[in-house]
């Protein structure tokens, strides 16, 4: 009887394609990690600069009175009227407080993520504009510290009045107990409004329908109203913040293409080409 033969089986071969995909995964994650690091550094710089600017309350109040004087000269000192309009209307007070304390920190990152997913041609100029305007605002906070209306007297701090409905206290949108971690003398310019203008124009540039563009613009207008009615900014703070962002968008090359033809109406408005940041 012959001995049984043992058949040799070839070792399993792992397909090359899945291995390559696994090896490339970390490389694909590098751009996203770089962007997160850049934005984290921007936020740290933003917070640090605001704290460095926090100092002379008397000087900040003097600057606030100068802003108010300009508004009175231009007949646009609407802060008292708008602030009084929401007082004792609880749903308006609470709604304005949540808008101020939440949307600024949620909507902007969400839109930034949206444009990142659209690719570098859209993302880089949009990101560049956000960085440029924020950096310029930090210089403004350092050189021209300005008290908001709620710290000047005669205005009601809506967030303080509605603190029982949220996590904030008497220090703008800072959580209770963390008021020392924010600079309350950084009213000029209003980056609540500046970032809202960025959101509005970026979303309008990507919108496919008129109602989407209208909603984007309404967000910017609503934010301007909210920062004034809550007594956290002067009207001019918002105007300067919006103008600063418009200038940054222009420098960065973020310009919705106007005048689409009928044949191109099904595609979203594109952005002007811009250099790599």
Automatic annotation (TrEMBL):
Compartment annotation: Membrane
Domain of life: Bacteria
Gene Ontology terms: cellular component: membrane
CDD domains from the UniProt entry: PAP2_Aur1_like
Domain Inositolphosphotransferase Aur1/Ipt1: 66-249
Entry keyword annotation includes Cytoplasm: no
Transmembrane segments: 97-116, 128-147, 185-207, 214-234, 240-259
One of the Pfam families matching this protein, by short name: PAP2_3
Alphabetical keyword list: Membrane, Transmembrane, Transmembrane helix
Bilayer topology: Multi-pass membrane protein
Protein name according to UniProt: PAP2 superfamily protein
């Amino acid at each position: 009887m012959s001995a049984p033969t043992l058949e040799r089986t070839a070792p399993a071969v792992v397909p090359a394609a899945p291995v390559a995909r696994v090896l490339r995964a970390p490389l694909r994650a590098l751009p996203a990690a770089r962007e997160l690091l850049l934005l984290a550094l921007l936020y740290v710089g933003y917070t640090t600069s605001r704290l460095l600017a926090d100092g002379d309350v008397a000087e900040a109040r003097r600057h606030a009175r100068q802003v108010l004087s300009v508004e009175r000269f231009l007949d646009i000192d609407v802060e008292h009227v708008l602030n009084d309009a929401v007082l004792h209307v609880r749903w308006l007070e609470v709604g304005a407080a949540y808008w101020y304390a939440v949307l600024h920190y949620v909507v902007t990152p969400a839109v930034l993520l949206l444009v990142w997913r659209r690719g570098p041609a859209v993302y880089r100029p949009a990101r560049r504009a956000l960085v440029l305007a924020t950096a310029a605002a930090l210089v403004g906070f350092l050189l021209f510290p300005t008290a908001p209306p709620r710290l000047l007297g005669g205005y009601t701090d809506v967030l303080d009045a509605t603190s029982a409905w949220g996590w904030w206290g008497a220090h703008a949108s800072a959580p209770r107990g963390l008021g020392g971690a924010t600079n309350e003398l950084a009213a000029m310019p209003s980056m609540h409004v500046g970032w809202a203008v960025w959101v509005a124009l970026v979303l309008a540039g990507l919108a496919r329908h008129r109602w989407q563009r209208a909603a984007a613009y309404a967000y910017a207008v609503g934010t301007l109203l909210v920062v004034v009615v809550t007594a956290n900014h002067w009207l001019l703070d918002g105007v300067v913040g919006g103008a600063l962002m418009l200038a940054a968008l222009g420098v960065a090359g973020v310009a919705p293409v106007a005048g689409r033809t009928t044949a191109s109406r099904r595609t979203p408005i594109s952005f002007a080409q811009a250099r790599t940041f």
